[in-house]
Amino acid sequence: MQEELVLSRKEGRVGILQLNRPAQLNALNDALMDALGAALLAMEKDDAIGCIILTGSAKAFAAGADISAMQPMTLSDVTRNNFIGRNWETILQVRKPVIAAVAGYALGGGCELAMMCDFIIAADNAKFGQPEIKIGIIPGAGGTQRLPRAVSKSKAMDMVLTGRMMDAQEAERAGLVSRIVPADKLEQEALDAATIIAGMSLPSVIAAKEAVNRAYETTLTEGVRFERRSFHALFATQDQKEGMKAFLEKRKPDFRHE
Ligand code: CO8
Fold this sequence. Notes:
By secondary structure, this protein is of the alpha/beta class.
C-alpha cells in the first residue's frame, strides 16, 4: 500500500499537516500537491480547527518541486495542465492562519510553499533557497515576488540569481522567518503558537490575517480603510462583547467564535 503523502492530525483546535515523502526530501509532485490542497480545504471547513501547521520531516520541509517529474515536461504539458496554478495555490484560499514549521531544506517550491504560509517558524538547521537557476529555470510559484517582499530586493536577487542557500540565522535577520528554535523544539514551539492563535476568536483571527495580507496588495490609504471597516465589523460579534467583558472582570474570555 502506498504511504499517505500528507499526514493529517489534530491537537486540540490545531490541525497539523505533515508532508510525507521523506526519501525524496518531500519533493513536491502533483499527487502530493493534490493531497495537500484537499487536506487544507478539509481543515478550513472544520469548525473544530482554528489554526493549521504545515511541516515536513527533520531533514526537509520540502526540497522543491519534483525534478524527476518536471524534467521531461514540455511547454505544451505545463500549459495544458496549468502546472503550478492548478493545485499549488489552494493554500491561498485558506482563511485560517497557516504556520510553516520548517526544519532542514526549504528549497525552490518548498521555500515558495513556506512563504505562502502566514509565518515561518524555523528550526536552527533550516536552510532556505531558490536554486531553480541551477537547473535552467526560475522560481515558478511566487519566489521572485514573495522573496523580495520578505527580505529586500538585494538579498532576493542574490538568492534567485546565485541559487545559494541561507541558513536559519540569516533568514531571521532578513525577516523571512519569525523565530528560530532548536530543531528538537520546533514541533512544540509551532504547536504553542498555533494553540494561542486557535484560542482567539476565529472571526477576529480571519479578519487580522486578511488585513495584514491586504498590506501587500493595496495602497496605505486603502489598506487602512480596509482595516477600519474590518475593525468596525468585529463589534458585531459576540466575541468582542465577551473579550472586553472578560478583561474588565479580570478573567479569561470564553470565545465562541461567533
Ligand atoms: N526533486 C526530486 N527529487 C529530489 C529533489 C527534488 N527537488 N530533491 C531531492 N530529491 C531526491 C534526490 O534525488 C534523492 O533521491 P535518490 O535517493 O533516489 O537519489 C533524495 O531526494 C535525497 O536527496 P540527495 O541524495 O540529493 O540528498 P543530499 O542530502 O545529498 O542533498 C539537497 C540535499 C541539497 C536538498 C539536494 O537534494 C538538492 O539539491 N535537491 C534539489 C533542490 C532543488 O533544486 N530544488 C528546486 C527544484 S525546482 C522547483 O522547485 C521549481 C518550483 C516551481 C514551482 C513548483 C512547480 C510545481
